[in-house]
UniProtKB/TrEMBL annotation:
Domain MSP: 1-107
GO molecular function: FFAT motif binding
Coiled-coil regions listed: 149-176
Gene Ontology biological-process entries: neuron projection development
UniProt name for this protein: Vesicle-associated membrane protein-associated protein A
Bilayer disposition of the protein: Single-pass type IV membrane protein
Length: 226
């Protein structure tokens, strides 16, 4: 039986009947509370075999017990027209019984194997850390090619075009205001205050649009760069 013994450990026994008669068998152990044997008795036909599962129950391993548990497989020829297995064993004569004795051996994992497993578990986080320290920036550079980034680039281009358009309109309105101011000055008609307010009103709206567009561009460019 190979440890650790924190769970059920199963070992199989193969019993074969090489004779030309049916054989009854029974499996006994010196530690019946420690083992579950299935089947623990039965009949084997001539030339046939049967597998017996011996299940060791979980327990606290004690090195002093590794050679104390024993099994014995008893066999006898089955009488004709057998109906009661218990009666067969009670009525069997000592010279009709055959037996084979087995000694249990408990094996724990090698201490060197344990050390290797511990070293492997310790080295694994180190390898993962080295991977994170080196290539981790690459996924960020690759992620800049996704759909969201392309949308941001296109939005920045569109806002730049809007700024250029608003700048042209602002320049046109400024020129138009200068032309109207010259006409008003030459005709000496209308209130200078009213003309100044009209000029300021016509120039302030495009300037405000340019400022708003510039703010949006700065926001999207800042998000794209980060």
């Amino acid at each position: 039986f190979s440890g650790p013994f924190t769970d059920v450990v199963t070992t199989n026994l193969k019993l074969r009947n090489p004779s030309d008669r049916k054989v009854c068998f029974k499996v006994k152990t010196t530690a019946p509370r420690r083992y579950c044997v299935r089947p623990n008795s039965g009949i084997i036909d001539p030339g046939s075999s049967v597998i017996v599962s011996v299940m060791l129950q979980p327990f606290d391993y004690d090195p002093n017990e590794k050679s104390k548990h024993k099994f014995m497989v008893q066999t006898t020829y089955a009488p004709p027209n057998i109906t009661d297995m218990e009666a067969v064993w009670k009525e069997a004569k000592p010279d009709e019984l055959m037996d084979s004795k087995l000694r249990c051996v408990f094996e724990m994992p090698n201490e060197n194997d344990k050390l290797n497993d511990i070293d492997a578990s310790k080295s694994a986080p180190v390898l993962n850390t080295s991977k994170q320290d080196g290539p981790m920036p690459k996924p960020h550079s690759v992620s800049l090619n996704d759909t969201e980034t392309r949308k941001l680039v296109e939005e920045c281009k569109r806002l730049q075009a809007e700024i250029m358009k608003l700048t042209d309109e602002n320049r046109h309105l400024r020129d138009e205001g200068l032309r109207l101011r010259k006409i008003a000055h030459s005709d000496k008609s209308g209130s200078p205050t009213a003309l100044a307010l009209r000029d300021n009103g016509s120039n302030s709206l495009p300037s405000l649009l340019v400022v708003i567009a510039a703010i949006f561009i700065g926001f999207f460019l800042g998000k794209f760069i980060l």
